[in-house]
């Protein structure tokens, strides 16, 4: 175990709102062992920015990690050539060019169809009514698993991300994760013959044209689902909520003063949908006076890095005019999120402008505040709204 000081946390309170605790850690113990999580947390932006690139020390290869055990060995849990080879294999499906020329139009079609079906009859939970189905329909297209319902895509994604964040070992959570991966395997099996016969630009379609072993294909499709559903879903709902609670900033976005991409980047800094990424210490290492031992587990706390006072003035304030370029919401090293371009297109190019163009006088429900939760993955649990017909 590292020589980092111990820092105790209240796990339920940390799930409800990790930011006050993370601010204390940055001030008092920016590298600290948290017994309740069984891991050493890196909380400063600069420590994380440097360490994530040092894959010979902060390794993503975690044979005994929850992701490997529950989802299979995907590229996120590989380093060096093994990681880059699989990353290159999926690139044709999610490159910036493919996103612009192929996926963005499909995203827009999904948004239009879902918005056409929405009716402001009383209180509408915008997470369930738009953010969830839109993210899931887009992900169905990207993965090639168009044979599943959007409800299954969301449930299976949530089952997996709950499973890989199950550091307290809850057997019910693990069981739901196994059910999710079994459902995805069945959907893959159903689509393989069709996509072998008629390849397309989906992840499954592209990977079936490579020599990647099928077990790795399955693992990487599960990886795409685990992060590709909750991050856009939570970013869409969260950004809508942030703008509705900051009407002056909403006016900047709808008036064209601030581009939607800048709005999205600031939200992803302010409330990072993916708040943490785990690493395994591969060899003895020291950061300042903290010594690390091989095979101990370290959490890179992206959510904390994105509120680091050294880089962001008044970091707890949502401000779309802010320069968020120092944010590491998508990572900072060779494991930079491969789906970042697709996510930006879904949220900033399609969802946000469509929502505020189509839903007249979209507003929150007085007396029914939105609920937010999570620390490894953080997002709105609901968003009660209404709008004018």
UniProtKB/TrEMBL annotation:
TM region positions: none
Similarity remark: Belongs to the cytochrome P450 family.
The entry's protein name is: Cytochrome P450
Any one GO molecular-function label of the UniProt entry: monooxygenase activity
Task: Enumerate the UniProt keywords alphabetically.
Answer: Heme, Iron, Metal-binding, Monooxygenase, Oxidoreductase
Cofactor field: heme
Domain of life assignment: Bacteria
